[in-house]
Each structure stands twice: as C-alpha cells, then as structure tokens.
Amino acid sequence: MDRLQSMAVFIKVVDCGSFARASEHLDISSQMVGKHVAFLEDRLGTQLLNRTTRKQSLTEIGALFYERCKVVLAEAEAAESIAHELNATPRGRLRINAPVTFGAYSLAPMMTRYLHEYPEVHVDLTLNDRFVDLIDEGYEAVIRLGALKDSSLIARSLAPYRLIACASPDYLLEHGIPKVPADLTTHECLGYTYWTHPPERGWHFTKDGEVHVIQVNGRLQVNDATALLCAALHNGGIILGAEVVLKNYLNSGQLVQVLADYQAPSRQMHILFAANRRPTPKLRSFIDFVVAEFGQPD
Predict the structure, then answer these.
(1) Is 24 exposed, middle or buried (0-12, 13-18, 19+ CB in 10 A)?
(2) In the chain, pLDDT over 90 holds for what percent of residues?
(3) Who has the most CB within 10 Å: 92, 232, 247, 281?
C-alpha cells in the first residue's frame, strides 16, 4: 500500500471518529479503511487505535503519530504545489527597475530575447539611477549597482559592472596619452554626476595589488552616460565609463582605451526581490534569465 495514502486514511478515521464515517467521506469501503490502518500498525509494530464495538480512541503513540502525519501530508502537498508552479507557464505583467545605462545598453536587448521566449509575459521596465524601494514602489525585482546595505530582500549576485578609461584619437593626439594614473591630473576628465551624491572626482586604478586613487579634474559633469559618450567622441576628454557602452566604439577605433595595463574600478551588481513571498513563475523565469545572461563567470 502507499504509505502517504494510508496516512491520509488514518487522519480521516481520527477526524471522523469511526471507520464507517471515514469510508463515506473517502468513498471507499470500511474494509479498505481498516486495511490502511492495519498496514500502518503492522509497519510501525504498534497499535494506533483502541477499538471497541461502541467507540475508538487513539493510543498514546497513535496521538503522536496522528499529529506527525498531518505535518507530513501538509509538506507533501506543499512540495506538489511548488512542482506545479515550476511547471506553470510564466504569464502576466512584471514591473522591473534598473540603472539607466545598464538598463539601456544591456538589459533592454536581453528583454527582447526574454519576451520572445515567454510570449505571455509583459514587462514594465523603469530606468533611473536613484535608490528605489522595491516594496513601496511596487516593483517585483530591481537591479542595483554597488555594495548592498543590510536588507530584507533576497539578492542574486551578477557579474561586476566593469569600467574602462578611454578618449578619442584626436584628443590623445593633441593632449598626449597618459602612461600612469597620475598623468590624468593634466587631462580633461569627463565626470558622471548621480542623483544622490556629487561627481566622483577620485578615480581608482589597480595594478599588481596597488591601488592608485587620482583626484581628476574636468570642466564638464553630466548625469547621462550617453551625453558623456558624445562628449568623448567629440574630443572633449577622457571618459571613465561602462565597458558595455564603450566596447563598440573601441572596436571601431572611434575611442582608444588608456591605462589598459591598469584595472579600472568595477561595481558590484545584484538582482533583488522580496523575501516574504514565493517567486511567481514569471518572476522566477525572469530572475533565471538575468542570472544566465549577466551572472558571475566561472
């Protein structure tokens, strides 16, 4: 006999108070109800019910077994529910938030592939560089750059957001190519300004375990990566920008990387979602897609 089925019959016998009433609820014969209970007693080597012609009652072991059976069956039902959810087709609307540059250059192209694979999902993608509250603002997942603060959210780590320094060939021809990070102090360094704090004047470079922090100068500060890129392409100075934004211009020769033998800073990146509710099929599929696309390399 199936042990879980016999447990379910045993619970119904206890709840109903008799084999006959349990058989009516389960739509099986009283004899079959008795066989399930006998199967459990034989397996356990002990009596679960005290039975007389007029009534039945649980033995001491039977009472303990009854409580544990309810827990076991509840866990089994929960496991089946999770399996059904995993197999369910992702559908519905997802609200996602991400930083502007990463969202425009990396996440949006990925979205087209994700939506092609999951045609019943709709995505509302909001891009901004301010700190958003996932719960209060109604997002199901957010992608964040930088170190995480203590949070009640669940975080999945993604590959670091790498930065590189580069400038146009004409700018470097006129102003010279920096050989070491300290040379940047004599150059126009294009600065990115954030919603929440001033421009980052200190540029960090690492080589052979030694960190070089250079206080750069620049007369142009912009809060938009595309505007900074345009300034660099038009000989405005050296830009420290996201590799994903600059790589095509480097490949075409419109920009030239400087200080290539130094490691420019990179920023931690995570996708976060609420911990107090189980991810829906649509959210789970999106998180898995993002981790597969932007996860940590082996």
Answers:
(1) middle
(2) 44
(3) 232
* SS3 of residue 37 by DSSP: helix
Q: Measure Cα distances from 176 to 81, 186, 237, 242, 261 in Å.
A: 65, 10, 11, 23, 17
Burial degree of 229 (CB within 10 A; 0-12, 13-18, 19+): buried
Nearest to 39 by CA among 63, 68, 10: 10
Per-residue pLDDT tens over the stretch 193-218? 764 445 566 898 999 989 999 888 88
Q: C-alpha angle 151/154/155, rounded to 5°?
A: 95
SS3 262: coil
SS3 244: helix
* Residues 6+ away with beta carbon under 8 Å from 59: 46, 47, 48, 49, 50
Distance in angstroms (rounded) separating the CA atoms of residues 234 and 167: 9
pTM for this model (two decimals): 0.64
**pLDDT for 243-262, tens place per residue?**
988 999 999 999 999 999 99
| Residues whose CB is less than 8 angstroms from the CB of residue 105 and which lie 6 or more positions away in sequence, other chains included | 242, 244, 245
* Residue 142, beta-bridge partner list: 97, 272
Q: Is 22 left (phi over 0), alpha (psi -120 to 50) or beta?
A: alpha
* CA 73 – CA 59 distance, rounded (Å): 21
From residue 71, alpha-carbon distances to 6, 11, 58, 159 in Å are 14, 11, 18, 41
Query: How far is Cα 64 from Cα 259, in angstroms, rounded to an integer?
Result: 71
Residue 277 has pLDDT above 50, yes or no: yes
For 124, phi then psi, to 5°, come to -105, 105
Handedness of CA 78, 79, 84, 87 (dihedral sign): positive
* Residues present in the chain in total: 298
